[in-house]
Amino acid sequence: MDIRHVSVQGGRLPVRVREGEPTALVFLHYWGGSHRTFAPVIDRLASGSTVVTYDHRGWGASRDLPGPYGIERLADDALDVVRSLGLSRYVLVGHSMGGKVAQLAASRRPEGLAGLVLVAPAPPRPAVDAQAADALAHAYDSRATVGDALQHVLTHRLLPADLREQVLTDSLAAGDDARLAWPRHGITADITAAAGAIDIPVQVLAGRHDRVDPPASLEAELLPVIPHARMTVIEDTGHLSPLEAPDALAAQIDRFTNAHS
């Protein structure tokens, strides 16, 4: 993939682009992820769409970008990427935190946005209380805590050694302010009013064994809020379906893209 540097508030954001069909897929990773999180899915896509991936502000290759690092600024970044690349028609694919960012971006009704694919998305209504959010803030304190989260919270199946190492590395690749912005502010933000303004097709992909954003929670807290949302449950996966079930995820994204190109 080609690397381009897009102007965003406060600096330049490294963006990876693979040119293809006119309808582009813009991938927004989860809290602790990176542009690499969706690589197994992208490798399996059959649609030939243009693909765009990047590390969120404050993470990985974008670590040096200044804050704030809240979901509003991350939504700004996503739309700045779209505009800078001149994407005339695109689908946002947001995973977990990236799914909440995608909801905020879509609520602004930007030109050219054809649909949303929300993968295990954080719902618009806060799904955790302040105490749980504070505990979450320590999930990425060290390799040991990340490993514990991988084993007991994030996955249903054991990841291969290379992907496990990738998650460990990516989860520790943020500055403190960026790392804490999600548990301290983003996950508890109520964006119900904004999500209710989304007026495009929305496909929700939930993991059958997801302990973070389980299907029942999304059915109760997300589907009633977003008017055009439909949910499909992906079997035999937990929260990290881009790494655990890339074949199933790629097939669903291809189906959605083909229907809304």
From TrEMBL:
Source superkingdom: Bacteria
SUPFAM superfamilies xrefs: alpha/beta-Hydrolases
Cellular component, GO annotation: membrane
InterPro entries attached to this UniProt entry: AB_hydrolase_1, AB_hydrolase_fold, AB_hydrolase_sf
Ranges in coiled-coil conformation: none
Keywords (A to Z) from UniProt: Hydrolase
Record-linked Gene3D superfamilies: alpha/beta hydrolase
Pfam families listed in its UniProt record: Abhydrolase_6
Molecular function terms, GO-annotated: hydrolase activity
Annotated ranges, domain AB hydrolase-1: 25-251
Protein name: Alpha/beta hydrolase fold protein
